[in-house]
């Protein structure tokens, strides 16, 4: 079984899913620029160091360390590239199982399945929407019994909320299974006073345009262990052995981050604390505005840390609210407001229909009712008021 179905472009157009961008349309999570990015890029151009190496890269990696506490950082072309490198460092081989929560973006697992791994999707905990450690513990026990332990487990921070990493580490540590953290949505989040992802063998961050801060595309692979990051750095730059000629003992990737983008990312990282506060304030305004509406709930904040509320994720009970999630999404769309259903569970994706798994009812229930609301920190209060009024107007009560 491979998960590389041939690409067949859909005949149907995407009209209605991607309405025209217009100045008045409110987007889900657009980049929030400071005005200082252009000067930073110009500074790199003036220096001549525009390759994926040099002072802009080391400056960006130092800024990631300053923002997260991870001592070792590799700047990468994307969060997905960072995850691919993590799987390479772990030597994931064809037929190996890699476990992940089913409630996440496909990039959590896509690089592993492209390496021939078999994904196994576990359900999430309704109290955090992240990987259920109790289910993980039971599944690991069963897998050990059939001598089929996974080669890695991926914990995922969702919508700015850290996974319950300590419980996941304890469950996996019992069997010697390494844990990777997909912290692409977790930048700025904490658990037990440390940065999200800290404690995993390797963690991946994303600086894509829709994330809490952006480099205009980019990522980082971070760890406490310098050797793991050194090995990833080697693989990220074509796996060149030390020799005067080009010599390779393994095949690598071209996964370095451009210096121009690193400069943008460094400017943006300086804003991270303000962006976390801003996203949380946006969530608080939604929660207060809908406190009296029947049938509206929100993603709970887990007790083990501070969530960034990268996206405000809301649940709509169709009977009590008087409208289902999809009709509400269309109502918002018609009012020039972009919203998105929460992650469609990976076990329900056509590409993974044959993948093994455990549970899935929680993720399916979240998908049936969950909607992400515009959460960008560049949004004005007047714009958020327009969103709030549209949702209040849609409520039957
Ligand atoms: C954004 C995201 C990624 C991928 O990051 P890119 O930088 O876009 O490659 C991976 N996992 C999750 C959960 C994400 O949200």
UniProtKB/TrEMBL annotation:
GO BP: polysaccharide biosynthetic process
Classification lineage: Bacteria, Pseudomonadati, Pseudomonadota, Alphaproteobacteria, Acetobacterales
UniProt entry keywords in alphabetical sequence: Aminotransferase, Pyridoxal phosphate, Transferase
Species assigned in the record: Neoroseomonas lacus
Residues at the catalytic site: 211 (proton acceptor)
Protein name: Pyridoxal phosphate-dependent aminotransferase EpsN
Sequence similarity: Belongs to the DegT/DnrJ/EryC1 family.
Annotated GO MF terms: pyridoxal phosphate binding; transaminase activity
UniProt gene name: epsN
SUPFAM superfamilies found in the cross-reference section: PLP-dependent transferases
Modified residue annotations for N6-(pyridoxal phosphate)lysine: 211
A Pfam family it matches: DegT_DnrJ_EryC1
